[in-house]
Design goal:
The chain is built from eleven helices and no strands. By secondary structure, it is mainly α.
Amino acid sequence: MQSVSEMNGEVTLPERAAELATDLTEDPPPPDTRRKRAVELSRKAALSGAGTAGRVARRGGKAARQAAGTGAGWLSDQVVAMVPRIKVRDEATLRAQFPGRSPDEIAGALISGAARAAAAAGATAGAWAALPVVTAYPAEVAAETLVVVGIEVKLVAELHEAFGVRPDGGKVERMRAYLAAWAQRRGVFLIPGGVVFAPGSPLARLLRRRLLARAGRSTASLGPLFTGAVAGAALNASATRKLGREVLADLRRHRIEG
């Protein structure tokens, strides 16, 4: 079912996050443009509900724990809505962009590119505090988390394409399988068919835990201008590179065993 904003032709938060994740990975915009898009994304996150959980969280104690659970559920919903909107380069496109390279070499280039994109997302968030815009830090954390998760799910999908491995189903089903692979840090061939992130299911709980951990790393970006930017960029790049290597190792094992 379409949301009111979608029916009115307005670009939604998941759509904008997916677009920025793709741009940072494939065609990084200039820093000024990137910051403007990041600020727009944080505003959308605040309007979509990220700010509410953040304000409650600052009260501490039980309210903070409740807010964390509510925020994780909201963030999970946004990610599930975002992933089908991510543009993924298929095997033919990757081979055309990386002519003469083996799947392993293409994978290495994809991991390096995604790490740079994730670093750019962290550095952008670190610079938001210097802009003359009043934004809520929790909304900024949510915005950066969505973009970095988008970058990483795109990486997982394209690593599979590089090795000629694609789950069954249409794009929505495939992207949800890749999201499950992102949450489990493994290839889609080990993911059960018909992935459903039903509330309370083990997969849904795992996704929430992963997103809470990811959001926790995003808070490093919100330190002072330069230290926050450097910390956010370094943490994002390291985490994305580690994820890519874990999925790549799984794909290599599958290729050998197959």
